[in-house]
Specification:
Layout (H helix, E strand, L loop, with lengths): L1 H21 L1 H11 L8 H16 L14 H12 L4 H21 L5 H7 L7 H20 L3 H24 L10 H25 L1
Helix pairs in contact: 1-7, 3-4, 3-5, 4-5, 5-8, 7-8
Length: 211
């Protein structure tokens, strides 16, 4: 029963994580549409990438051939150290897992960089709901999974991630009714300026004809 429950929680954790990592699609669509990153922070996405790389390495067997990944220098250093300097499987898991705990906690807390702006502007426009919700859902499921499997490297960061997810959702509920400030598109501003200039020219020409 215990193993089945842990397996079920693990499957749900994977689904929640997939939703978490898919959540920024809405933000990316808005950025592409407006051709601007506006006030969105890149920190959550960079740390999420680092966290994915670290936990991918954490789950690999000890005999897997090391492939240098130049995407992130930090991941390259950690993977090389654990592969070439730590030959004991348990020590390797302890090393990579410890770093993964820090990276995972940072990932779950990274959306909080927008909290100051949310409280100042009374707007949640730049703290996406989907990112906050799936962050809470994924961290809560992985917390239960880690506790059931007695794996502190999985459970520990989620002791931080789950409460931080709740905090983000509370802030969203507090300020979501305040409305979202619409930022005019740069192209629209240019077009409006162009139309205003044309109108002024037409008015000037009409005035000259009448005089």
């Amino acid at each position: 029963m215990g193993d089945r429950l842990r397996l079920a929680i693990g499957v749900m954790g994977n689904v929640a994580s997939l939703l978490l990592y898919s959540a920024p699609i809405f933000t990316f669509a808005r950025v592409i549409k407006r051709k601007s990153t506006e006030e969105y922070s890149c920190v959550p996405y960079i740390i999420a990438l680092l966290n994915c790389l670290l936990y991918t390495w954490y789950g690999l067997p000890i005999k897997v051939v090391v492939i240098l990944i130049p995407v992130i220098l930090a991941f390259g250093i950690i993977s090389a150290t654990s592969a070439f300097m730590i030959h004991n499987h348990h020590q390797r898991k302890a090393f990579v897992g410890s770093v993964g705990v820090v990276a995972s906690a940072a990932m779950y807390g990274s959306p909080l960089v927008a909290v100051k702006q949310v409280m100042q502007t009374k707007s949640v426009e730049f703290m996406p709901f989907h990112l906050s919700f799936f962050s809470f859902l994924a961290s809560s499921l992985w917390l239960v999974y880690g506790l059931l499997g007695h794996d502190l490297f999985i459970a520990s960061p989620n002791f931080v991630g789950s409460p931080l997810g709740i905090l983000q959702l509370v802030l969203y509920c507090m300020y979501r009714k305040r409305g979202i400030a619409e930022v005019p598109n740069k192209l629209d501003v240019v077009q409006n300026d162009h139309k205003s200039t044309q109108l002024e020219i037409m008015v000037t020409e009409d005035t000259k004809e009448k005089t």
